[in-house]
């Protein structure tokens, strides 16, 4: 035994002559994939080197997810080659891909909320070893080791559903690392995270990289890509349109590659002369609610777009909900158009001209299996039915006008909302509220999960509505550039109170990001 | 999780409280005689509840088991009479196997066509009951025709007591069968990969298949075991009441589901335990038993069961929603 160890330590055995280790982990060459005649990936080549952080940028529908599925063995390419460690892999199955060390962290994390952190972590090992009987003590050890390897604190006995999004993500990352991963693909990992959590995530990603594990970061948030990655590949319509070291890119360039268009954003200027003397659309005086809201004084005049940011749990969503009548029992007063109004139900708020586009438009805002028309009209039926019956002709007109105004990509108003892209879905929700002739629009995360092109379009529509129609807008977002470009004022909230208000013309994105990071 | 937050502890607490109250109203409740008879009433509902628990953890629901139980029971007893067989082991194996086969039918539709378990089991239950009455027969098999082996087995007691007036009473040995099955299911759920797979399936079916669980295998396991437990319970029931009635068990699904929900299992799947279910079964049986002692009309017992289902489901749903928030 001793001799054996000595022999190993002497070393030379490890360097087999003639076998030059490849610097590339995975290479895709001229990969093509079609689905029923629609080209999803066209002649696409991609190389990920060992231990690099590689960003894959592209809008929704550009082929990003198809590419992930090709690498994880879920889809077989129609033509083209894949090689791992310099060796061609003929058929990459999901199992083979995992054996080669490719791990995908999906957006929904694929965790079991009803099971503990320990069990979630140890389950893969359990299944891989094809054990039939569990050893709970060993499972806990496996889990403890996985968590300590990540250098974070996680209570192993908590049910996963009790963790925050960031916590769940950590569990998913820890699980991916357990299986001797060599490439971790992260699909939109920062979507639901706050500034501070993103910072932690990036620290962990760098740490993983330092162990020689490559990371493919799939995203459409430019600032993050530029901050974290070594190399960027941009794809559009299934084709690679650019790739190179990150230092060669800037935001404008990535956007141009992703959309094929130049998107210029100018800061939003509020027309003080036109709207300054009018009464505020909404004004709160000493608005408080339990520990969620603490003495909030906010006034938004017509035409203003006020940005609101803060960490999750800062009370920003509660403020939005209280202005939409969903927090009855608040203290203080709310004035709408100069008149004190009590907002105890959403119906009160809607009648008073308040509109709310929720954070999670899918679960809170849209009826996915219904058509665009019904979704748009769902808050307007009272107006459409003066008597007993709905005025169908008028309803159709309204829907057609809105589809045109909001530039929703659809041949007809009957198309089901679930078949639309994220950007178009968001437009349907906004259109619904415009049909109620809202005077005050609350947008909570207006472009979460929306691609760059649609995002710019939604921003344009909102700004136009504010400028021309005098709509007052409260825009809640984690996306700092979004706030800086679209709001005339930005308010930061923390622990239920306003901590700072800034005019966006004299504030840079970095200043706001720093302030957000320093909130604890 | 702190111990006092565990569902089982909460249920046990409520159970003790209920027992104290019932005992105060009716001191006879605490008599050994009554306790033994209560435990006896736990056996059949309890074994069936174990099957329903399994299905509910996986995120499904089963309303077909009373039909499977009655079919397995009636066919087995008929078979025993036909072959003049007087053993016990083989008939129980036969009844459980029949139940498992019926369960496979459920699993097939649930897995293959991704159908909602409620609809599948409503359909299969109705079919099996219909076939039984239509083809096999509708006549009851009374004590004079019932196989003696079955009756003797059902009669066996663990302890026998003599009352002051000379009548005897005992604790049925069937309670051991029930406890044995419960322990077995507990071990499977808690300590085997397939058991954890049931929880995983109830937690997130998509994630379960991504991690590498064999969903087909787990689905078949769940419904076959549930069916086997029902078939077994059905035959045991006939041995205990010395009667094989093809129209038995009508409406029992509601009692059993109420007991399982009362025991803390989530209607959304992913949550539930054997101990909790056993406590739930005991509570339900106790409440119904007390209503009988208090001479309350059977129609009102249905109302009580309905109320229990609604309240218990509301509480567990509220608990689960809070956990997800």
Describe the fold and architecture.
The complex is a heterodimer of chains A (about 525) and B (about 325). Chain A has 20 helices and 20 strands. Chain A has about 525 residues and is α/β, with parallel strands linked by helices. A six-stranded mixed beta sheet of chain A has the order 6-7-8-3-9-10, with helices on both faces. In chain A, strands 16-17-18-13-19-20 form a six-stranded mixed beta sheet, with helices on both faces. A four-stranded antiparallel beta sheet of chain A has the order 2-1-4-5, covered by helices on one side. In chain A, β17, α18 (about 450-470) and β18 (about 470-475) form a beta-alpha-beta unit. Chain A is globular, with a radius of gyration of 26 Å. Mean pLDDT of chain A is about 85; it is low at about 1-20. Chain B has a domain at about 30-250. Chain B has a two-stranded antiparallel sheet. The mean pLDDT of chain B is about 90. Classes of the chains: A alpha/beta (about 525), B mainly alpha (about 325). The interface of A and B includes residues 108, 123, 124, 131 and 157 of A.
Helix and strand topology:
The complex is a heterodimer of chains A (520) and B (325).
Chain A: H1 2-10, E1 24-35, E2 38-49, E3 53-57, H2 64-71, E4 79-84, E5 87-89, H3 94-99, E6 102-105, H4 117-128, H5 136-150, H6 165-178, E7 183-187, H7 195-210, E8 214-219, H8 222-228, E9 231-236, E10 239-245, H9 251-259, H10 272-275, E11 282-289, E12 293-300, E13 305-309, H11 316-323, E14 331-336, E15 339-341, H12 346-351, E16 354-357, H13 361-365, H14 372-377, H15 381-384, H16 392-405, H17 422-435, E17 440-444, H18 452-469, E18 472-476, H19 480-486, E19 489-494, E20 497-503, H20 509-518
Parallel strand pairs in A: 3-8, 3-9, 6-7, 7-8, 13-18, 13-19, 16-17, 17-18
Antiparallel strand pairs in A: 1-2, 1-4, 4-5, 9-10, 11-12, 11-14, 14-15, 19-20
Helix pairs in contact in A: 4-5, 4-6, 5-6
Chain B: H1 7-25, H2 32-57, H3 65-83, H4 89-112, H5 117-136, H6 148-155, E1 157-162, E2 168-172, H7 174-191, H8 193-203, H9 205-211, H10 215-241, H11 252-262, H12 274-293, H13 298-324
Antiparallel strand pairs in B: 1-2
Helix pairs in contact in B: 1-12, 2-7, 2-8, 2-10, 2-11, 2-12, 3-4, 3-5, 3-10, 4-5, 4-10, 6-10, 7-8, 8-9, 8-10, 11-12, 11-13, 12-13
């Amino acid at each position: 035994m001793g001799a054996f160890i000595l022999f190993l330590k002497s070393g030379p055995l490890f360097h087999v002559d003639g076998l030059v280790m490849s610097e590339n982990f995975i290479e895709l060459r001229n990969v093509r994939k079609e689905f029923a005649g629609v080209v999803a990936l066209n002649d696409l080549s991609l190389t990920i080197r060992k231990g690099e952080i590689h960003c894959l940028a592209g809008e929704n529908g550009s082929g990003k997810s198809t590419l992930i599925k090709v690498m994880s063995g879920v889809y077989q390419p129609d033509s083209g080659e894949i090689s791992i460690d310099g060796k061609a892999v003929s058929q990459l199955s999901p199992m083979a891909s995992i054996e080669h060390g490719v791990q995908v962290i999906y957006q929904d994390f694929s965790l079991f909320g009803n099971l503990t952190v320990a069990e979630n972590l140890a389950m893969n090992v359990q299944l891989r070893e094809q054990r039939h009987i569990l050893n709970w003590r060993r499972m806990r050890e496996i889990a403890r080791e996985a968590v300590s390897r990540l250098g974070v604190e996680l209570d192993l006995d908590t049910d996963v559903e009790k963790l925050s999004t960031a916590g769940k993500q950590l569990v998913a990352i820890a699980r991916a690392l357990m299986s001797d991963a060599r490439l971790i693909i992260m699909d939109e990992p920062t979507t639901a995270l706050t500034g501070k959590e993103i910072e932690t995530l990036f620290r962990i990603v760098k740490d993983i990289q330092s162990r020689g594990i490559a990371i493919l970061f799939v995203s459409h948030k430019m600032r993050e890509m530029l901050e974290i990655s070594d190399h960027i590949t941009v794809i559009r319509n299934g084709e690679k349109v650019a790739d190179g070291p990150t230092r060669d890119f800037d935001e404008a360039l990535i956007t141009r590659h992703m959309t094929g268009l130049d998107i210029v954003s100018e800061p939003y200027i509020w027309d003080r002369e036109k709207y300054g003397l009018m009464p505020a659309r909404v004004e709160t005086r000493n608005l408080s609610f339990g520990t969620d809201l603490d003495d909030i004084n906010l006034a938004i005049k017509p035409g203003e777009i006020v940005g609101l940011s803060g960490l999750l749990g800062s009370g920003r969503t509660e403020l939005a909900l209280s202005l939409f009548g969903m927090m009855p029992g608040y203290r203080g007063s709310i004035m709408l158009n100069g008149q004190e109004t009590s907002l105890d139900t959403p119906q009160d708020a809607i009648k008073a001209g308040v509109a709310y586009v929720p954070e999670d438009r899918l679960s809170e805002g849209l009826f996915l299996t219904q058509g665009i028309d019904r979704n748009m009209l769902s808050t307007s039926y009272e107006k459409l039915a003066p008597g007993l019956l709905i005025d169908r002709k008028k309803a159709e007109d309204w829907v057609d006008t809105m589809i045109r105004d909001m530039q929703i990509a659809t041949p007809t108003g009957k198309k089901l909302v679930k078949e639309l892209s994220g950007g178009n879905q968001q437009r349907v929700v906004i259109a619904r509220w415009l049909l109620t002739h809202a005077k005050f629009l609350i947008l909570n995360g207006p472009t979460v999960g929306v691609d760059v092109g649609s995002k710019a379009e939604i921003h344009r529509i909102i700004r136009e509505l504010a400028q021309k129609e005098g709509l007052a807008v409260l825009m809640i977002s984690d996306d700092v550039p979004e706030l800086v470009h679209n709001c005339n004022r930005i308010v930061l909230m923390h622990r239920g109170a306003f901590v700072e208000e800034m005019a966006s013309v004299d504030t840079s994105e970095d200043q706001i990001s720093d302030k957000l990071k320093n909130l604890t | 999780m702190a111990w006092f937050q565990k569902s089982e502890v909460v249920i046990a607490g409520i159970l003790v409280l209920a027992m104290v109250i019932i005992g105060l109203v009716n001191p006879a409740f605490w008599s050994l005689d009554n306790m033994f008879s209560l435990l006896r009433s736990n056996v059949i509902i309890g074994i069936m509840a174990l099957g329903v628990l399994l299905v509910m953890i996986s995120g499904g629901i089963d309303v077909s088991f009373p039909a499977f139980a009655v079919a397995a029971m009636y066919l087995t007893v008929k078979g025993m009479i036909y072959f003049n067989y007087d053993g016990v082991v083989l008939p129980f194996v036969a009844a459980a196997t029949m139940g498992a086969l019926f369960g496979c039918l459920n699993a097939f539709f649930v897995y293959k066509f991704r159908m909602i378990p409620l609809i599948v089991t409503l359909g299969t239950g109705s079919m099996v009951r219909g076939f039984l009455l239509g083809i096999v027969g509708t006549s009851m098999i009374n004590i004079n025709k019932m196989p003696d082996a079955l009756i003797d087995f059902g009669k066996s007691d663990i302890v026998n007591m003599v009352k002051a007036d000379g009548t005897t009473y005992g604790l049925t040995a069937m309670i051991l069968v029930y406890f044995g099955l419960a322990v077995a299911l507990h071990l499977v759920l808690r300590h085997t990969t397939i058991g954890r797979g049931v929880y995983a399936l109830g937690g997130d079916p998509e994630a379960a298949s991504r991690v590498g669980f064999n969903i087909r295998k787990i689905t078949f396991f769940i419904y076959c075991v549930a069916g086997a437990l029902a078939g077994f319970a059905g035959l045991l029931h006939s041995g205990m009441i010395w009667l094989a009635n093809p129209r038995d068990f009508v409406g029992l699904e509601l009692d059993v589901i109420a007991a399982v929900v009362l025991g803390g299992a989530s209607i959304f799947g992913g949550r539930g335990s054997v101990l909790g279910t056993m406590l739930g079964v005991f509570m339900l049986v106790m409440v119904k038993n007390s209503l009988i002692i208090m001479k309350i009309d059977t129609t009102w017992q249905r109302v009580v069961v309905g109320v229990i289902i609604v309240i218990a489901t509301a509480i567990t749903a509220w608990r689960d929603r809070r956990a997800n928030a």
